[in-house]
Amino acid sequence: MLYEIVQTNTFEYDSVHGQWKNRKLKVQDSKVLLFGEKSVAVFANRRMSKSSGSCVNPNEIPLGKTEAAVIVESAGVFTDMDKAAAHLKGGAKEIVISAPGEDAPMFVVGVDGKEYASDLDIVSNSSCTANCLAPLANKVINDRFGIIEGLMTTFHFINATQKTVDGATSINIIPRSTGAAKAIGKVLPALNGKLTGMAFGLPTVDVSVVDLTVRLEKAAIYDEMGAAIKEESEGNMEGFLGYAYDDVVSTDYVGDKSSRVIDLICHMASDLG
Fold first, then answer.
1. pLDDT tens digit string along 89-148?
2. Could you tell me if 93 and 117 are in contact, meaning their C-beta atoms sit under 8 angstroms apart?
3. Is CATH 3.20.20.370 correct for 1-124?
4. Any residues with CB less than 8 A from the CB of 84 and at least 6 apart, and which?
5. N or C: which end of the chain has fewer CB within 10 A?
6. What CATH number does domain 128-263 carry, 3.30.499.10, 3.30.360.10, 3.30.450.20, 3.30.70.20?
7. 136 and 260 in contact (C-beta within 8 Å)?
8. Structural domain boundaries of the chain?
9. 7-41: per-residue pLDDT in tens?
10. How many angstroms from the chain centroid is the CA of residue 53?
11. What is the C-alpha to C-alpha distance for residues 160 and 179, in angstroms, rounded to an integer?
């Protein structure tokens, strides 16, 4: 029971999102947590041994018995079709990979979500950076002004699995590669090959920043760009595209429900023509 007690405590007291206050959470037994009166099945992670009765591989988790239909694959390990399909063997009906799947159909809300078909049992929701950038690059910038080329720089919070030589991830800025530009090219063929990018891992625990620099086909002043962002935010992208005029910092957005929030006071524009 020790593992379940630790897991419950970790859920209730989160250093980033704060204390869980919605419904009382307690351990019923070694396989069930209670959220109020609602029971939720729990399976130990892959580090646990088989001798303890825990599940090591996805196909060993009896998802069919739990009536879990849609599985969000966020382990960062089972990101291709074959590996993710192990969840289907356990009884799941659909798998959503929360990373750019190597060969899975990829969808980003606000870009190509309407192309999703109900007969697909494994899909990728791409990366957090692609979800942040793709709708802005597509609906707001490319559709209205045209993108000739662009450079994106991501400042990403530290990953639990980020490796360094000496393990000092919490005191360093770490240059990293990013597959976001490639992922955007997959969901937005019109921008394929037009965007490139770089990433830096920062010693923060949540919320990332994406800086996008583009060269436009159609001349535009930033007020026009800002007006387009506000129009989409209050129209077709209401609920997942936000904007802000406030002088805020990254932690002010912890728990924000929007996929991206555009800072409308932090920008630069130049006329190179």
1. 989 999 999 988 789 999 998 888 889 999 999 999 998 899 999 989 988 999 999 999
2. no
3. no
4. 58, 73, 78, 95, 97, 101, 104, 122
5. C
6. 3.30.360.10
7. yes
8. 1-124, 128-263
9. 778 888 888 988 888 878 888 887 888 888 888 88
10. 31
11. 18
**Residue 119 buriedness (CB in 10 A; 0-12 / 13-18 / 19+):** exposed
d(CA 192, CA 185): 4
Low-confidence winner among 33-37, 212-216, 243-247 (lowest mean pLDDT): 33-37
Closest listed residue to residue 214, CA positions, set 266, 135, 146, 144:
146
128 catalytic? Reply is yes
